[in-house]
Amino acid sequence: MATPLGDYLRLARAGFVMAREGVASRIDPAVRPPGSEPLFALAGLIERGGPASSAARLGAALSRLGPSYVKLGQFLATRPDVVGPQLARDLELLQDRMPPFPQDVAEATIARTFDRPVGEVYARLDLPLAAASIAQVHQGEVVDADGTARRVAVKVLRPDVQRRFRIDLSSFYRAARLGESSTPEGKRLRLVAVVDTLARSVSMEMDLRLEAAALSELAQNTREDADFRVPAVDWDRTGREVLTTEWVDGIKLNNLDALRAAGHDLPQLGRIVMQSFLRHALRDGFFHADMHPGNLFIDADGKLVAVDCGIMGRLGHKERRFLAEILFGFITRDWLRTAQVHFEAGYVPPHHSVEDFAQAIRAIGEPIYSRRADQISMAKLLTLLFEVTALFDMQTRPELLLLQKTMVVVEGVARNLDPQLDMWKTAEPVVRAWIERNLGPAGRIEEVATGFGAVGRSLQTLPELIAQGQRIAAQLDAATRDGLTLSPQTTDAIGRAEGRGNRWMTAALWVIAGLVAAQMLF
Predict the structure, then answer these.
(1) Which segment of 154-158, 245-249, 405-409, 418-422 scores lowest on mean pLDDT?
(2) Which residue numbers are catalytic?
(3) 124 vs 346, residue with greater confidence
(4) Which pTM value belongs to this model?
(5) Which string of DSSP letters, residue by residue, matches 341-389?
(6) Which of 3, 32, 90, 392 lies in disulfide reach of 55, CB 3.0 to 4.6 Å?
(7) How many whole angstroms separate alpha carbon 344 and alpha carbon 366?
């Protein structure tokens, strides 16, 4: 069970391990909290030397601390404003590297989930192929009723992972509350909300039935897409701790040599990755939020196949509209409209000037307009963006964290496939189509039709509302015809209180009596 002392001890151990592996020295000084210089100086004394890369040492530190910290590291890759752009890129490279757990433990989990031996569930179950902080993946084989054998991917939850995360999340909350209470910057960054988002994400990932449902929903949304698909779910072999899906035969998107050898057009693949993500986010409001190259394949038909839907993002219609208008403002260089959208969305406090914010947006957008991806320094761009958010008191928007992180990752994947990719020209057809469909004449007509539908539904309930009004009127008439009447129990209690001279009890009872009368009236 988590206790305050236990939280602080775990945080102290984590700090030592991080400092030992040189993680503290990788944090950008610009994002370090005020007054923390002595702690970072001490961390420098603890740091060990060695030739290993910063990403490798970071991976070693997080692996030592356990699956909760690997997941935290992956999540903090979404927050370069907290850890700095360079460390965020190192964290993104981790992709949940963890040692696998034993085969017999995985088989015991499968047998417990389906209440029958593993041999009756799968004709074959191979050793794990990949292991992450939440689960690991095996290749298996099943035989259908007609005798057809087919390969499947079997994802099995790590043993005891729920308890570990519950304890470590207590420590993360402790650190977040300390950060918010000690510095105004920590409060602006909403560190507790960051941990809240992590906790929700992890709780969803630890029920593999929810991942199966996400795959099913994404498949339904993209069934008409010519260049994107997800593996089909085997629902008969899926439970809370086990997920079985179709096995994907394809080439990973980071294997450029194999993609070229297979004759694929790499720049076209880069456009497919970026446009698929934007289409899902804007059109459907439901997108794969972990689109690193290890989760993306190209199948024999040239389709982009996304696996591992444990982390998904959702956007409401309002958020989609703001996203589309902001992106379109950047594409068309309409900085004033882009600024106005930020104010309409409530992203910038109203006491600031729209014109001043438009000027700041222009300072971000103009240097990257019409430049290829290889000509843009994402580190400098992110640094400038964070300076602007701090200057205009913009608080973190937890509902947009996954979107922001995925946009950065997708841009990186597309850049790897096509270093000369123009992300604005690539995004423009998808964004323009959404705006024309939803904010143009067709969208306005649909809004009017939706409004008429709401009015129609209200009219359907009108008789019930009239009847309810008549009942209230009758109760009011009965209650006031001979004056308000309190129940005998209430008046007796008031009398006893007065008899004892307890003025406070009398006042409290009269308040209760008043509330009872008000309830009768209304």
Answers:
(1) 405-409
(2) 290
(3) 124
(4) 0.71
(5) HHHHTTSS-TTS-HHHHHHHHHHHHGGGTT--GGG--HHHHHHHHHHHH
(6) 90
(7) 23
